[in-house]
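Q: What does the assembly look like in three dimensions?
Context provided by user:
Components: two
Sequences:
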Amino acid sequence: MTWNRDMLAFLAFLALAIAAPAAVYPVFLMKVLCFALFACAFNLLVGYVGLLSFGHAMFFGGAAYISGHVVKVWGWPTELGILAGTACAALLGLVTGAIAIRRQGIYFAMVTLALAQMVFFFCLQANFTGGEDGIQAIPRRPLLGLLDIKNDLTFYYVVLAVFCAGFLVIYRTIHSPFGQVLKAIRENEPRAVSLGYRVDQYKLLAFVLSAALAGTAGATKAIVFQLASLTDVQWQMSGEVVLMTLVGGMGTVFGPIVGAGVIITMQNYLAGFGEWVLVIQGLIFVVVVLAFRRGVVGELMAWWRRRAGG
Amino acid sequence: MFELLGVPPQALFGQLLLGLINGAFYAMMSLGLAVIFGLLNVINFTHGAQYMMGAFCAWMLLEWAGIPYWGALVLAPVIVGLTGIVLERLFLRRLYHLDHLYGLLLTFGLSLIVEGLFRREFGSSGLPYGNPMPGGTNLGFMFLPHYRAWIIVFSLAICLATWFVIERTKLGSYLRAATERPELVQAFGINVPRMITLTYGFGVGLAALAGVLAAPAYNVSPVMGSNLIIVVFAVVVIGGMGSIMGSIVTGFALGIVEGLTKVFYPEASSTVIFIVMAIVLLLRPAGLFGTQR
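A: Here is the predicted structure of the complete assembly.
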């Protein structure tokens, strides 16, 4: 039953996404998809393991730098650039995750935030990142040597494929026995420990998976905008992905996609208002936390259940 | 002129002094966070913004009302503390029954609002604030500006006074009891919700006081808080939030570590605290003074 409903929702999303370039500028759509994948990866951790990471920008931005560097300076092909970004983000996730999972709850959030700040300072000082300028004019080489991704529309469908692949990996993870254990840890960690699960290993694997997919999103974003910059690794970026997931609905499968769409659209319309964007993002945080903690998708599902039940 | 470990003493003691000053701010900030967390179970992400508000409050009092530094040192923490009390009454209070993470998210949102509003009003470059204690003393091995000495002495006094009130007075014993078992303390007829409100106001006031102290030393700028708060979080993770004295000692010690790193390996000076945090987490996950919960 659930499988069918999720399936239908996914097919509807796919149909919408395939038709969307007819109405909306493809670069904007690619941005939404990259951030949607980023938010889905983040949601895997916060929604299904109950670990709130406040440092996911390090994977997103770190992978953007790596893929930008290998594609631009080393001349690697695009697909290898994205894979390199993903692999490095996974590795970074393995190291930072091993440190961060030693604390829970609020401390976990503070530790990830601090580690991400460390990565930010590294990126600020390292030579290959280009400091304040970032890595600019990253070339869009033909994909697999065949597909011309200089064309925005073609590249949009490639990004859509990357997104779907990432999304299905997450979906499969959540609905696997592994995902069930993750949810058990979220609900009651001491009980999961007493049942004999090596909780730390499960958490670490989930962390690495989430980091890797956030890296895929960041690497893809770097190729789309041909730019990797400090904005991608700043703590504000970590805050943005939290906001997207919160608005869409933490722990819902489709929430992060909706949240990313809402926030990116909002940023697009408010781009001319400067500092107001920050204020409005803060206001959304406050309103959602106080009044509507389940997020858009979560509230819709609750409404649906109430209707079906009553 | 003699040298210490290949470093001229002027540079060494100069950086040590700067490190101690940073340490003074870390100590005051993490102390406020620890007091708030103890009673409210909320990590106050707005703490950095409230530190910045303290500095701006001092600036506004001077520029708009002509109230000098010494007046601001008393007034600004009270004013900002009152805004904290309003926040607690209006918003934070509604979240105590929920997962602690929502408190973090709410205060994060509030800090974005505050920072955004100040950035819109004052730009992000920073405003100067005149030094109320110009001049300094030559100690022979280094030059000691009076205001910097004042920061260290004053913040140390504030930290120790806070420690004394919490650990050695009757009011403090109520506070510690309410941290352990709020329902039981309430059953004894103590108004715990009011105590929570006042505690939040006090922690916020402490952040604002640090902000006033910082105003003449650094520029007054809307981004000064968000830069500081992340380092203070790392300090809190290193020290653990279980002990008041622990927060104070960790704050000053990490300031000194940072200062020394600036002398011997400047490239790592902005990351050294995070590296210390990672090492402490690997060796003693509960923090130096903390108990795992």
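Follow-up: The mean pLDDT of chain A is 91.
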